[in-house]
Amino acid sequence: MMQIHFRGAENQLRWAWTDGLRTLGQREIAVMVPWPEHDSRDRLITHLLRFLENYLISQPKRILPEQTLRYGWTTLRFVGDEHHLSGAGTDVLLIEEMQHPFSQDDPSYGPGVARTIALLQLQHEAMRRNGITGDAMYPHHSQYALVCTRVTPETVHLLRPLMVHRLWQPNVRESGWFIGCCSQDHDHGNPDELAMIHLHHLIGQFPGLFPYLAMPVDTALLFEQSQVIIFRPGEENGQVDPGSLLSSLP
User: Fold this and answer.
1) Are 143 and 96 in a shared domain?
2) Residues 55 and 107 in one domain
3) What order do you get walking across the sheet with 194-198 strand by strand?
4) Considering the domain boundaries, does residue 12 fall inside one?
5) What is the per-residue pLDDT across 170-218, written as a single tens digit (0 to 9) for each?
6) pLDDT at residue 10 in the model
7) How far apart are CA 200 and CA 214, in angstroms?
């Protein structure tokens, strides 16, 4: 079984790296950890490296330098450690992350996964404080949401109340989320009144939606002017989210 090690390097940064991927024909993988020892975020680094291990076990392809991989909302890139930055040897791959995961421009990458971890924490916290159990299902920014035609990037932050419901299991292309108005005169059962929009087009104008996007199928949300009502899977009665609405993207 793959082992995970944490330690400081000569430049005083901490690193985490794998030990055992070579048995799968894969170069070991290291990631910069810019926070001190005993930080709770180490658990999310471990989860990331275990995710990569399971990905490699599940299919025959190996991760190569300059390859990218979707992870949660963002995308990771793998590069060689020719300058021995990690202290784990030169034959390892380093993880880089998108520097601007909410931008629609061509992606640029930087070392480490601090932004990626911060986004995961936002979604974990929204689930925790609202008593949402089960596994989180993180959508990627490239996935689509099904919307009613009154919901557009220009109107999504204005329509209130706004209904948001994760109706089906996500797939590579679709997030499983439906976003619609609450007007009685709008037929959401009519395909002509529905459309698909990339999530990142909506989140750019409506950052308050982002923390809830990893919630499981059958979770429903009702956005009012100054609060969000959460309907947990299987429950008909909603509860007000005790947290405040996110007003800007991290």
Assistant:
1) no
2) yes
3) 194-198, 144-148, 174-181, 162-166, 220-223, 228-231, 239-240
4) yes
5) 999 999 999 999 998 999 999 999 999 999 999 999 999 999 999 999 9
6) 55
7) 14
Residue with tokens 């800007």: 248
**146 and 67, same structural domain?**
no
Q: What is the DSSP code (8-state) at residue 119?
A: H
Whether residues 188 and 159 share a domain: the answer is yes
Percent of the chain with pLDDT over 70: 98
Q: How far is CA 159 from the centre of its chain?
A: 25
Residue 48's SS3 state is helix
- Distance from CA of residue 111 to its chain's centroid? 18
Token output for 163: 């209904």
What are the beta bridge partners of residue 180?
163
Task: Tell me if 103 sits within 8 A of 131, measured CB to CB.
Answer: no
Give the Cβ contact number of residue 91 at 10 Å.
11
Same domain, 100 and 11: yes
Question: What is the extent of the structural domain holding 75?
Answer: 3-119
Cis peptide leading into residue 161 (ω within 30°)? yes
Q: Given the structure tokens 């975020």, which residue do they identify?
A: 41
At residue 41, φ and ψ (nearest 5 deg) are -70, -15
Q: Is residue 128 part of a domain?
A: no
Helices (H), 101-159: 114-129
Q: Encode pLDDT of 120-165 as tens digits.
A: 999 999 999 999 998 899 999 999 999 999 999 999 999 999 999 9
Q: What is the pLDDT of residues 76-88, one digit of tens each?
A: 999 999 888 888 8
